[in-house]
Amino acid sequence: MKKLENKVAVITGGSGSIGKTTARLFLENGAKVLLVDLSEDALKNTVKELNSEQVKYCAADVSKADEVKKYVNEAAQLFGKIDVFFNNAGIEGTVKPITDYPEEVFDKVISVNIKGVWLGNKYVLPQMNDGGSIIMTSSVAGIRGFAGLSAYTASKHAVVGIMRCTAIEAAPRKIRVNSVHPSPVNNRMMRSIEETSSPGHGEEVKKQFEAAIPLGRYAEPIEIAQLVLFLASGDSQFITGTTQVIDGGMCAQ
């Protein structure tokens, strides 16, 4: 039997590399999937690429309560109650010292990465089946500090606090809640961080990041997706309230 046979999953950040790769893995394992992201065009392209009758989309701004309610209601109307929520949407902001960091960028990062995550849990939980699973995307930046990434790092630390509170509150319903903490992933977000860190020298920044990872490379989106599938499935039925680090040994140093 497939790990998510007849389960309903909602994935925010659904057109990004981790969201899309996880959606494909969920579909292969029998799930019905609703993808959520800001850009309808990106969502349409992702759904076309996934090429499955079991995937739908809803364009929404995760930082706005009415739009979060919209995607939750859409999932319920399309597929029924939710079994798996991959609360994954996030933005990187920019790379600057705190003294130079633009306040408006800070506010945007906090709005999407903290409020968006909080709103997702707030409105998904009432529509979630008992025994379900919530997986929240944090980062190694939710465990340690990184110069120039104060807004992103603060937001990813906050995800851990929301995760732990939700895990305790949802436990009577046997709903498991965990966070995943990837090291740098080989995707668009890291290309942005590399280039913003040192314009014109992104490849050098990449090598510096890789040198800080004992396994010597970035994670691939499929490796994050495989961890998320484990946490979404019954294989993890006694795991809740945990920070699941997937970082090639980065935080061991």
Automatic annotation (TrEMBL):
Annotated InterPro entries: NAD(P)-bd_dom_sf (IPR036291), Sc_DH/Rdtase_CS (IPR020904), SDR_fam (IPR002347)
Lineage top rank: taxon: Bacteria
EC number: 1.1.1.-
SUPFAM superfamilies xrefs: NAD(P)-binding Rossmann-fold domains
Uppermost EC category: oxidoreductase
A GO molecular-function descriptor: oxidoreductase activity
Family label: Belongs to the short-chain dehydrogenases/reductases (SDR) family.
Official protein name in the record: Levodione reductase
Protein's organism: Chryseobacterium salivictor
Lineage: Bacteria, Pseudomonadati, Bacteroidota, Flavobacteriia, Flavobacteriales
